[in-house]
Structure prediction request, 215 residues.
Amino acid sequence: MLNKIISKLKKIFFPSAFDKAYDKWQNNGGDERYRYDFDLSNNSIVLDFGGYKGQWASDIYSKYNCKIIVFEPVQEFYLNIKKRFKSNKNIRVNCFALGKNNRDEKIYLNDDGSSLYVDSDNFELIKYKELLSFFEVNKILIVDLMKINIEGGEYELLETLINTNIISKIKHIQVQFHNINKFSKQEMNLISNKLKKSHNLNFDFEFIWQDWTLK
Prediction:
């Protein structure tokens, strides 16, 4: 209890950069304003990286009746989402991540904070599949919206999208960068500068959400 009180007091009197960004996000409307209002229709293709419980995918589908491909490599979360959408042919759920190559990785389990980049005794092996091959095999020519919330995996994913030029197929990107090490801000800025060549930045709440649209 005392630790919680001290933590709250620190946020009030000595807010971090993240605390300030989060307060700004909330004061400007937060998820309700920024996370569900897109130019989509029932013909739109949406890629959801980091499905977790499937709530965002469910909300987007309810609003736009679009086609959604969900990527959730954690077995428990994948099975729950698969069950949730078992009767919906427009929502496809994959139990793997996309990245630069095919491989297995350890993911450390911590509910919605499960990540490759934290340390824990509780982990499982997940599959990565090569992003370029996935797009080619599935004949994905245009993605209307890509949502990325993958606890540090966004750095590899975005670099791969840029290096393969698949980034030019993505009309709208909403990404949550994560502060996983001392180089995270530098790497985020480097990727953002690369994205500016193909996309316009609509808003940036640091380590909360960035939003980009194709030029």
Remarks:
- The beta strands are 45-49, 67-71, 91-94, 97-99, 103-108, 123-130, 145-148, 172-175, 199-205, 209-214.
